[in-house]
Amino acid sequence: xxxxxxxxxxxxxxxxxxxxxxxxxxxxxxxxxxxxxxxxxxxxxxxxxxxxxxxxxxxxxxxxxxxxxxxxxxxxxxxxxxxxxxxxxxxxxxxxxxxxxxxxxxxxxxxxxxxxxxxxxxxxxxxxxxxxxxxxxxxxxxxxxxxxxxxxxxxxxxxxxxxxxxxxxxxxxxxxxxxxxxxxxxxx
Length: 188
Hints:
two-stranded antiparallel sheet, 188 residues, 8 helices, Rossmann fold, 2 domains
């Protein structure tokens, strides 16, 4: 099951672009255009009977600020990343004080946003392994990771389960496969 991301931004072009990009990274993305709609969903924790896992909230919405949304939904059951093209240090501090998990500037490269989502989800879950930390896989662990990949069919989903970023997992899998090939070659 993929992570359900709620994107709240009043720019329709940006909503479409981010939704398409995150979908390619394996996320299930829903979008909203207003702060009022976001408040309702944030307070319920669900959209169309689907649990929200994480939200990306624009700081400047047409009907209210993202900070207003955060202020009216403190204690929500999922983390929020605030996204803005006009942010200042005081804006970031206020968003974090109101319970945002992170604050990022637009434009943000897709792979950076995906890594940020994974990082925030791991922090939210209380995981102790920092994103990008070296991960050593023994043969049995690699077999478990392969089984997870077969079940979830997404490196991003498995990386999230292991609380490491997708690129680190891909690199470790490639290194382990290469080492296994070298070991087999030298054994002949």
